[in-house]
Write a structure and sequence with these properties.
The chain has one helix spanning 28-33; strands at residues 7-9, 11-15, 43-48, 54-58, 63-67, 73-78, 83-88, 94-98, 102-107, 112-117, 119-120, 123-124, 128-133, 139-143, 154-159, 165-172, 175-180, 186-191, 196-201, 212-216, 223-229, 235-240, 244-248, 255-260, 267-273, 279-284, 289-294. It is an all-beta fold. It has one domain (7-303): TolB, C-terminal domain (Neuraminidase). The longest helix has 6 residues, at 28-33.
Length: 305
């Protein structure tokens, strides 16, 4: 449909040290997701704090790591859960999208992880996957569970700052990563098993209407996972199981950049950071590696609309 965009190769920024890699241990999450394989670490949820440190989660082992700008890695918390997404709040604490427990609250000063929202009224969640926080404090999060094309029962929620919980969309095939545009009148939603990113316009009353497919991907062993927005409102899509991250123009959804992984194909999540916030940091989950790439490459402006 489109010509191939320019491509760059990411570089390794940091790796989980061997002393933190779980070997010979048992995890039910791994038994379900990667039966028969040893997965010493599986990273997702990159997010920067106000001081410029990068935080990531380790899903099967319930761990939270901090990575300094130098690339030094430290283990900051470990608890009984499956942390998947992480976003910092204005007060310096962070919310965790936990597939086992629900929304959890992480205090980096204390190293504590506590329940924040574990149910929709009396019903447990299917398995919360990722989240994003609006400027007004509203939290949007996906409830993915094991949904897919065979059973599209995933959901998208909004938790208002006053504690009101709303299910905005349901009957979703594997709702995963999500991000708001700069105006916060559109939410982009990755539906992994459908290999698509949905565009969800937010009406003035907060409802979502005229939801449609913004990007339809193909190939890979999984599909779109984590999402991000750059300074020009272009959409960044981590193509999990493809070993690449794509950038699509904000206006027409045309691919304008491809970022390749030098390690594995499990390019799951990303976040902008570094000087002026223009470097993209990417988790290659299965190898326990964080990659980085300069997305202001020569010639990119030729592809912007």
């Amino acid at each position: 449909m489109f010509a191939a965009p320019p491509a760059v190769m990411a570089e390794v920024f940091a790796e989980i040290p061997e002393k933190y890699r779980k070997r010979g241990a048992h995890s039910h999450w791994i038994d379900v997701q990667f039966p028969g394989l040893e997965i010493p670490t599986f990273l997702e949820g990159p997010c920067f704090d106000a001081a410029g440190n990068l935080w990531i989660v380790d899903i099967p082992w319930g761990r939270i790591f901090k990575i300094l700008p130098s690339g030094e890695v430290s283990l900051e918390a470990e608890y009984d859960g499956h942390p998947n997404g992480l976003k910092f709040l204005a007060d310096g604490r962070a919310l965790i999208a936990d597939g086992h427990n629900g929304l959890m609250l992480f205090d980096p000063k204390r190293g504590s992880v506590e329940p924040y929202l574990t149910r929709d009224l009396l019903e447990p969640f299917l398995g919360i996957n990722d989240l994003t926080v609006a400027r007004n404090g509203d939290v949007y999060f996906t409830d993915m569970g094991l949904s897919g094309l065979q059973n599209p029962n995933g959901r998208l929620y909004r938790l208002s700052l006053d504690g009101k919980l709303e299910c905005l969309l349901d009957n979703l095939p594997s709702p995963n990563g999500l991000v708001l545009n700069k105006s916060e009148n559109v939410l982009y939603l990755a539906c992994t098993r459908a290999n698509a990113v949905w565009k969800c316009p937010i009406m003035p009353d907060g409802t979502m209407r005229k939801v449609g497919i913004f990007v339809q991907l193909s190939g890979g062993t999984s599909g779109p996972d984590g999402l991000a927005i750059d300074d020009e409102d272009n959409l960044v899509v981590c193509h999990n199981g493809f070993g690449a991250v794509w950038m699509f123009s904000a206006i027409v959804g045309e691919p304008i950049l491809r970022i390749n992984s030098p390690r594995g194909i499990f390019t799951t999540n990303c976040a902008f950071g570094g000087e002026e916030g223009r470097t993209l940091f990417i988790t290659e989950s299965k190898t326990g590696t964080v990659l980085r790439a300069d997305v202001t490459v020569p010639g990119r402006q030729l592809y912007l609309r």
